[in-house]
Specification:
This protein has 86 residues and is α+β, with helices and mostly antiparallel strands. Helix content is 37%, strand content 21%. Strands 2-1-3-4 form a 4-stranded mixed beta sheet, sandwiched between helices. Helix 1 links the parallel strand 1 (4-8) and strand 2.
């Protein structure tokens, strides 16, 4: 399985809540800060057609904005033991 990617930025309370949720569940993820990393910002906008943070990418699914319930539902469909983080 592809690693979970979290696009975030500083001073974003929903981003912090999403990170805390993933950490508390023991779910590995890669964080990309769109304020500090222009490549990540371009990727977010051009590849995922998203202009908001947090944006969470799980496989081919993209969750733009604060969508903890939808993220949790998607994660429950997947085997978390097969997550690979590089």
């Amino acid at each position: 399985m592809k690693p979970i990617i979290l696009y975030s930025q500083p001073d974003c309370p929903p981003c912090e809540i999403t990170k805390k949720y993933l950490q508390e569940k023991g779910i590995p993820y890669i964080e990309k800060n769109v304020k500090e990393d222009q490549h990540a910002k371009n990727e977010l906008v051009k590849k995922f057609i998203s202009y908001s943070t947090p944006t969470v990418v799980i496989g081919e699914k993209v969750f733009s904005g604060f969508r903890i319930n939808e993220i949790e539902a998607e994660l429950s469909k997947r085997s978390l033991t097969n997550l690979d983080v590089e």
